[in-house]
């Protein structure tokens, strides 16, 4: 994705990679260490444990193994969609999640930029969902690969032909679709929550086709954190505890704007 961004970038980047990437990549190391510390076996371990004890919906019904894998992947993706919406709606959860949105550029490393506390909490939620639905271990592994691969793809600062983007976003979240979610305009930030597939946004009324100011004219990030100083690792880590203007409440459903 990084090579693709160099060869065919969608937006020119004002803030250079040497300024942003050290913090974004360092946070990945801390996230990995945090998950390994708190959840040594993580979601796959939870799936194996649930299977051995017969816990979860899919462990209580008889169906082909391939059917259970497909249903589990769909259920996990839907759970991540609603988790993402909740992290935007609940103030203290937004404080954790906003570090992801505070990146002042949008590229492949933005897809890796999550606060360690959010990563730990997200893993706890994911493990609970895995046990609740009785997801097979194979489904969990496949979903983790899918989630991480699509996150890197849809955060890419890459250019796709409009026809290809229109076709792809029928079954996959494209970079242009997800970039809207990183707009500094709140009604656009509170749209396009899906990471893997676009169906949940379309089904639940949170789909927005295009940014109001266009992909080249839109502002990426959050109004409260707009300096290069905010991109440093130390500032990223303390960001959830920094006071900012209160996020205004948003009411009503999101409506599709622009063309696909």
TrEMBL record:
Residues 69-206 form the Fatty acid hydroxylase domain. It is a multi-pass membrane protein. One of its GO terms (cellular component) is endomembrane system. It comes from Marinobacter guineae. It holds the Pfam family FA_hydroxylase. GO terms for biological process: lipid biosynthetic process; membrane lipid metabolic process. This is Sterol desaturase. The lineage of its organism: Bacteria, Pseudomonadati, Pseudomonadota, Gammaproteobacteria, Pseudomonadales. Keywords: Lipid metabolism, Membrane, Oxidoreductase, Transmembrane, Transmembrane helix. The chain crosses the membrane at residues 21-51, 63-82, 123-147. PANTHER family: ALKYLGLYCEROL MONOOXYGENASE, STEROL DESATURASE-RELATED PROTEIN. GO terms for molecular function: glyceryl-ether monooxygenase activity; iron ion binding.
């Amino acid at each position: 994705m990084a090579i693709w961004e160099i060869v065919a970038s969608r937006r020119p980047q004002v803030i250079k990679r040497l300024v942003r990437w050290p913090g974004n990549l360092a946070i990945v190391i801390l996230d990995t260490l945090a998950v390994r510390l708190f959840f040594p076996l993580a979601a796959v371990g939870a799936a194996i444990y649930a299977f051995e004890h017969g816990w979860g919906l899919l462990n209580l019904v008889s169906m082909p193994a391939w059917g259970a894998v497909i249903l589990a992947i769909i259920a996990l993706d839907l759970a991540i969609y609603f988790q993402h919406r909740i992290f935007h709606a609940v103030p203290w959860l937004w404080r954790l999640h906003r570090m992801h949105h505070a990146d002042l550029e949008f590229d492949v490393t933005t897809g890796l930029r999550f606060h360690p506390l959010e990563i730990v909490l997200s893993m706890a939620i994911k493990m609970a969902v895995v046990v609740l639905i009785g997801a097979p271990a194979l489904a969990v592994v496949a979903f983790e690969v899918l989630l991480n691969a699509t996150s890197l793809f849809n955060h890419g600062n890459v250019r796709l032909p409009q026809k290809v983007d229109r076709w792809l976003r029928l079954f996959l979240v494209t970079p242009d679709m997800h970039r809207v979610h990183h707009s500094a305009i709140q009604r656009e930030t509170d749209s396009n929550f899906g990471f893997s597939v676009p169906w949940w946004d379309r089904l639940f009324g949170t789909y927005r086709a295009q940014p109001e100011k266009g992909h080249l004219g839109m502002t990426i990030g959050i109004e409260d954190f707009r300096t290069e100083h905010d991109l440093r690792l130390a500032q990223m880590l303390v960001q959830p505890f920094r006071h900012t203007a209160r996020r205004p409440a948003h009411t009503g459903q999101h409506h599709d704007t622009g063309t696909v």
